[in-house]
Amino acid sequence: MTQNETPNELDEAWWKEAVVYEVYPRSFNDTDGDGVGDIPGITAKADYFDDLGVDVLWIGPVYDSPNADNGYDIRDYRAIHDDFGDMDDWEQLLSALHDRDIRLIMDLVVNHTSDEHEWFQRSRRQEAGYEDYYHWVDGDPDEPPNNWESIFGGPAWTYDEERGQWYLHLFHEKQPDLNWRAPAVREDLYEMVNWWLDKGIDGFRLDAINLLSKPDGYPDGDPDSDLRGNEHYFNGPRIHEYLRELHDETFAGRDVMTVAEMGRITAADAEAYCGPDGDGLDMTFQFVRDEMESESDGRWASPDWELPDLKRVLSSWQQTTGAWVAPCLGNHDQPRSVSWWGDESYRVESATLLATFLLTLRGTPHVYQGEEIGMTNAEFDSLDEIDDPDTRQRVELAIEAGEAAGFDDVRDAVNEDSRDHARTPMQWSADEHAGFTDGEPWLRVNDDYPEVNVESALADESSIWYYYRDLIQFRHDESPLVYGDFDLLLPDHDQFCAYTRTLDNAALLVVLNWSDATATFECGSVETADAEPVVANYDDPPAEPQGCEFRPYEAAVYRL
């Protein structure tokens, strides 16, 4: 940290000062022409990450998997899927990143496995020691044990003819949930986690980690809930016990980073999991959009949203001092951030505004691949173009229920919200298939790749890419952006999102005109007479913000 020295009581840590970049391996870079991204493709871009200035690479699952959910259904935790390469390729990636002082974290998926995992195969045969590795329940083959719903839609139970019982799956039916009540399950998982840590990785992103604990007896869920049963399987009765044990048996005593994916949690929950008296986890994502949706119409909500609502949900976490957070605007499970949070008509301006927002928040920011060039949502014309099992299942259920006659009736919802928007191949150049592959890509490339690609961005020093690079460096140089307090200004304003980041005598003011109309900044609670613009996404920002007009999607950071 160069701008200010931070006092010891701030509890400094490398992962607090880091910027994380998420790679979705299947869609990042293909080197063997099979249309699927691979580990050598990530290694080949090691200098790209270094030039951008990121500190940590999070790569999605590359484990052996039948790909019912694109790798989040793991068949063998200690093997690399053939699509991605082999363990030697993985070792070369780790070495290439570490040579550039970039750390590597991987996905840890321990709520469920694939139904092709050896443990499930043994459990369905009721082999000794494996009988209770999963959630098995007796019952009529025609009547699930309770009314719980899968997060992907439909019942959360599937009847297994071989064992003659129902098994629980909170996601796809090929992703049976592990039974964490069984000590042998936990012991096997801890051994696997330590095996990867011993190989030299720098931590894990913990997938769906607050789903591990299910109540005895599997009581029915609220029939009027947007997701029946969720009150029982999110943040279940023994979740803190399990997470503390996971920490103590694996991460404790190691200089590693853990970031938790947790749905349906509040700021208070985050502190219970990640605070100083929590379960030992370093941070958890705040999914602002999900919190806003929980107050509206759920998974297929319209993208219409109000800025005051965003600020209210955001500040409830940003101003919570007890837990470190992991801000993100997009990831492999959400639509493109420019299309959802910004405005494609102002693609460059809104992409750089979003970058300013993300990289000046409290916490460890996570950038998703393609955000640094302003990638946008694709346009899907038929269900045949959709790979995402969540989207496909929801569309098929809507048709079966008579809520839609066909894809055309849900086209708008899919094109607003499908996870495949984030999974279209990375756009490297204007060459065929955006330079992603020499073969046929596993998912079609977005039509805008001739204009939106890395090669053209690197050729233009005023591009979104350079803005990200410079802003990442700015964050590295400014202690207030890492360890400073966050204070929201103008909470009810429907155009401006503004806040200060303050540490000791150093203060920064962030002003974002989050709209497509010019607006005048007026905020009597902050003195700006001596303000100096230090970051801006327009060439000529207001020299002093008070009383000045900000153009559509104009973003500026001022030193106070």
From TrEMBL:
Organism: Haloarcula mannanilytica
Family of the protein in this entry: Belongs to the glycosyl hydrolase 13 family.
Pfam families documented for this protein: Alpha-amylase
The protein, known as: Oligo-1,6-glucosidase
GO molecular function annotations of the record: alpha-amylase activity
Gene3D superfamilies (UniProt xref): Glycosidases, Golgi alpha-mannosidase II, Oligo-1,6-glucosidase, Domain 2
Entry-linked PANTHER family: ALPHA-AMYLASE FAMILY MEMBER, OLIGO-1,6-GLUCOSIDASE 1
UniProt keyword Lipid biosynthesis present: no
Keyword line: Glycoprotein, Glycosidase, Hydrolase
Lineage: Archaea, Methanobacteriati, Methanobacteriota, Stenosarchaea group, Halobacteria
GO biological process assignments: oligosaccharide catabolic process
NCBIfam families, alphabetized: PRK10933.1
Positions of the Glycosyl hydrolase family 13 catalytic domain: 22-423
